[in-house]
Amino acid sequence: MRASALACALATALIGAGAAHASPAHEAQKFLARYSDLTSRADIGALELYHDEARIKITYFKNQATEQEVVTNGRQWKQTLRAGWFDNTSRLEATRFEHVRVKPLAGQRILIRATRVSLTSCYRDTGYATIIAPQENRLFTIVEERVGYPRDAHCEPRAAGAYTSKPSTMATTN
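Given the sequence above, the corresponding structure tokens read:
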């Protein structure tokens, strides 16, 4: 009986240790799935994906030329989005990620580069990059993000993320 209890405790510890050290690719996949799920439901809980001290660089494009660049922190970004969430003036767009590339960084941080596909405004941000890091609750949050928004992208998305017109493509710069 003692041997089986010890074996059970050891197995639980090993499983727990494995879960605590999931691969960076797995953590990135879980994070992006959570991001996509929350934004697709226009859930204001998506704001909690951003760490208050995150550094966020937003580039606005028009006709594929940079029109404006803004650098802000997570706290200000969340305040801006929260203020416009319910009157529909600003919110995180429903998003899907393609061509995801993951690179582990120091301190359990993970660099994610991807094509960010807006299911709301029908464009592709081919230069999307974010760094996520685990917090005390073990959930990963964005600590740095580079995102681009074209001011001239408009279309009517159909069910299941299909576009009624071909999405525009733009690339953000470093």
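The first helix runs from residue 2 to 20. Try to locate this feature in the token string yourself.
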